[in-house]
Amino acid sequence: MIRKTVENVQEALKGVKDGMTLMLGGFGLCGIPENTISELVRLGVTDLCCISNNAGVDDFGLGLLLQKKQIRKMISSYVGENDEFERQMLSGELEVELTPQGTLAEKCRAAQAGFPAFYTPAGFGTEVALGKETREFNGKMYVLEEAFKADFSFVKAWKGDEAGNLIFKGTARNFNPCMCGAANITVAEVEELLPAGSLDPNDIHVPGIFVQRIFQGEKYEKRIEQRTVRPRN
Prior knowledge:
Pfam families: CoA_trans
Number of domains: 1
InterPro entries: 3-oxoacid_CoA-transf_A (IPR012792), CoA_trans_fam_I (IPR004165), CoA_transf_BS (IPR004163), NagB/RpiA_transferase-like (IPR037171)
Distance between the termini: 57 Å
CATH class: Alpha Beta
GO molecular function: CoA-transferase activity
Family: Belongs to the 3-oxoacid CoA-transferase subunit A family.
Mean pLDDT: 95
Largest sheet: 8 strands, mixed
Protein name: 3-oxoacid CoA-transferase subunit A
Low-confidence stretches: none
Number of helices: 6
Number of strands: 11
């Protein structure tokens, strides 16, 4: 059976260079590839274009790359919760391409499925549609959106096996599945790495065909971005 495992995060990120376009899974701070981001910081790669739903917070997630000025462009749907992101965007240091959240997900999924583009009604009549082809279908206007083109896709899963099959836990099953296979190389970090064939096929969310490298991560913080609790009586 094909084995996709690599020894560690250093081996998993071989080939990452300055100027690349990277996809990073997660939503807020949920299900983000923590080990991968830490290694990108250590490597010091710069001039990166990062595709992610959001940009983490100031001292965690993609915020760590922003602090080191390693990101040239962010393609995101939500960019709150990060003061450094706001500062760089307003000062012109960081290029930002805001994308409707559903469109962002579909641009990933289209790349995963091999579709070059698709039509969506989201964004028609707004700045999102500027410079893009539009077309009418059944009396409704649509915008042509192109699939993403990325060098690496980095995702984080709960469990995986040596063949690259992945299972996500809870809401960590957000942008991670649709980013698998949506880049030239997909790297998955997992909390638990099992022998090939250990996972029940009925439980697998992403088959190993979409993953090129997999490794077991460590020391996950799993921070909570906004803790909301009921007041005590």
